[in-house]
């Protein structure tokens, strides 16, 4: 099978030329254009809940919702939510990169396996310090900290208790639908 690998620059040119429509739900993963899962009701609810719960961090972090994140010359993903280093003006002329991320969140309904086996190693490799994967099928939040190579040194699955980021405590039960 013949495959053509794309760079992030190619990916942007395809969007600009209309080859990939502006509303196309695709991302660039290791040079391949990959369709993203559709967003269902639970997914949308959890993402809106996270925005509400994390909004007190405005000023300490930039909330970026389903926006591009560059993880290298051939990878540009669209995580559900990222808390980025402030100020927001630092992203006026460039897209955020892995080193800009304080926390990254993926909401997974049907995409859990993909998020854990494909995207999580990319996040670790990019040095993203903390990732939460909200598992809608099992009502838990997978937490990953201390990136090392293509994995994380610390990982836990929470069904209760609290998540914490930048001193803000977030009850796990409030994140889950």
UniProtKB/TrEMBL annotation:
InterPro entries: Nuclease_put_TT1808, Restrct_endonuc-II-like, Uma2
CDD domains assigned to the protein according to its UniProt record, in alphabetical order: DUF820-like
Limits of the Putative restriction endonuclease domain: 9-164
Chain segments annotated as coiled-coil in the UniProt record: none
Keyword terms: Endonuclease, Hydrolase, Nuclease
Gene3D superfamilies: tt1808, chain A (3.90.1570.10)
GO molecular function, one term: endonuclease activity
Protein name from the UniProt record: Uma2 family endonuclease
SUPFAM superfamilies: Restriction endonuclease-like (SSF52980)
């Amino acid at each position: 099978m013949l495959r053509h690998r794309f760079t992030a620059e190619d990916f942007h040119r395809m969007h600009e030329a209309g080859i990939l429509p502006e509303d196309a739900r695709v991302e660039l993963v290791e040079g391949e254009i990959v369709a993203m899962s559709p967003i269902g009701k639970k997914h949308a609810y959890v993402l809106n809940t996270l925005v509400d719960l994390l909004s007190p961090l405005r000023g300490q972090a930039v909330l970026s919702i389903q926006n591009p994140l560059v993880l290298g010359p051939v990878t540009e993903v669209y995580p559900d939510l990222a808390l980025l280093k402030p100020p927001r003006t630092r992203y006026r002329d460039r897209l955020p990169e892995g080193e800009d991320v304080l926390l990254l969140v993926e909401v997974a309904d049907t995409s859990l396996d993909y998020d854990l086996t494909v995207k999580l190693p990319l996040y670790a490799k990019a040095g993203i310090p903390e990732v939460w994967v909200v598992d809608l099928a099992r009502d838990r939040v997978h937490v990953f900290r201390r990136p090392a190579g293509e994995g994380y040194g610390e990982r836990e699955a929470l069904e209760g208790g609290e998540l914490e980021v930048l001193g803000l405590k977030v009850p796990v039960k409030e994140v889950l639908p």
